[in-house]
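Assess this today:

___
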Amino acid sequence: MLRSTESHPTAEWVHRVVRRRLPRVSLGTVYRNLRLLVGEGLVAEIQGPHARFDANLEAHHHFTCVRCGRILDVDRPLAEPHAEALRGRIAARTGLAITHQRIEFFGRCPQCQSAKARPRRPRRAP
């Protein structure tokens, strides 16, 4: 189910979807299974006020809309040339052996840029 969505759902969203097929499944069971998938390297966890989960394990970065809370993938090639240069400068200055990085972008998504409504709280994960 996680692989069939490009959104970055919360455990609560996964729970709602799973309950359509397994009405008695608990939220705790969903959390335990998501943590198991993360531990096995089959799903990535995106840290934040509410943990989100990502089945896309290809190297990529994220954009988070500060208005609606939507998380979008940013393909790695768009950000990578600058990231490689930064990684090299940091390694040279600190002696650290950097293997990879995660870049997070924040701002407003196209829908929120065009919305005339007053600011609102971030929406629940899809």
Remarks:
- The mean pLDDT is 85.
- Residues 2 and 11 are 11 Å apart (CA to CA).
- The first strand starts at residue 44 and ends at 46.
- Strands lie at 44-46, 52-54, 60-65, 71-75, 104-107.
